[in-house]
Amino acid sequence: MKDGTKTVFLVIGTLLIILGLFMLIPYIVELTIGDKSHNFLFWSVFSIFIGYLLLVTNQTEHKGLNIKQAFMMTSFSWIAITLFASFPLMFSSLKLSFTDAFFESMSGITTTGSTILDNIEIASKGVLIWRSMLQWLGGIGIIVMAITVLPLLNIGGMSLFKSEGSEFEKILPSSKEIAMVCTKIYLILTLFCALGFYFYGMDAFDAVAHSFTTISTGGFSTHTLSMGYYDSAPIEIIAIIFMMCGSIPFLTYLKFIKGDIFVFYKDAQIRGFFLFTFLSSIIIIIYSYFFVKDSIPHNIRETAFNVVSILTGTGFTTEDFSTWGNFSSFFFIILMFVGGCSASTTCGIKIFRFQILHLFITKQIKQIIYPNGVFPIKYQGEIIGDTLLTSVLTFVFLYIFIFFIITALLSLSGLDFITAISAAATCISNVGPGLGEIVGPSGSFKQLPELTKWYLSFAMLLGRLEFFTVLVLFFPSFWKN
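Above: the chain sequence. Below: its structure as tokens.
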């Protein structure tokens, strides 16, 4: 086995050991406020043991990775973590099938938030905190990957942010140090979020669990009614604040710490994200007031929360927005595709790609008017070359193409149009709830056929890892020397 491939298994082994150690937390919760089950202890020991075997059998002096091995490491790591994280769910008091446990685990680690639990309250405290922790781990995992791996692999225009990472490597020793600082920021934001929830009415357990899934923009809740269970304006406002915090590029937090106090204003992504969030909320507020006949104060609160939740891919709900009219349903599907900023916990196509598309379309219009003109595309002060532009356009096209394929597969399985199209959109964009009675905010994915759940699990992985990272493994040429 080549040293690079050994390093892939070495990384997977290390991650399994870390996952096993984290399993001790729900075990402690079970012993103190749960049903005193030893389920998590067993799978913790099992995960650590398998991880240790991978470590000792793949020791190598050369730890470098080429591009091929980086792709392998990224995809196989997420699949391995999902698999091992599903075992405690499968053997818990819920007695989930392997398909359901894997689906729930994939939904957690990819911060999707779609669930097969139609009555969340029957789950043990250990299972509830484990679901939340999976999303928290997935959130920091995708931040680290977006900073250290995706720019190097040139996934969908992510190489645009390679220079930002290089900028920090002049200050910090390596991308590893950058990732460590981002992790500390992630921890601090989680702590403040938990304290805010606790101060405004959640008990300690719920505050911690929801802080994990808020800052990670994951959306798992400890209650079937999600955030609607609390019916609290302060809690919803805190959730909005920290969902937005999780949607901002974590590199901007580093710049702010290093003294660039205007960085949040100067960043084109952040400005675009806040503007789009504001305009989306205004559109739904006006539509709801004139066509749904809701009161303005209640309308603003509910609309702002649900728009931010869906746009950021969090998936918390306060009520069933699929009942707000046909236009609202259509608009929320659009929001599922957009997502937040790069190098954040959000998924979707991402704001920066829409901004580059807008610049590209503007250039084409100018070129028609002035055929001999030269109109370079600039983003964040940098000229966008043809290679990067092609990468962005290809990503967007592939995103939409795969969305239609998954929708078609779901339709073939017997699902109605609204369920099929919203389930495909919410899973490929890692949002959570879909539309309609089955997978909408008031339903769950439990009723779906088993094969459909595997389709959607794969869609979650594709969306989370930016498509190419996974799809490249299916090309025979990838495996040739």
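Residues 93 and 381 are 55 Å apart (CA to CA).
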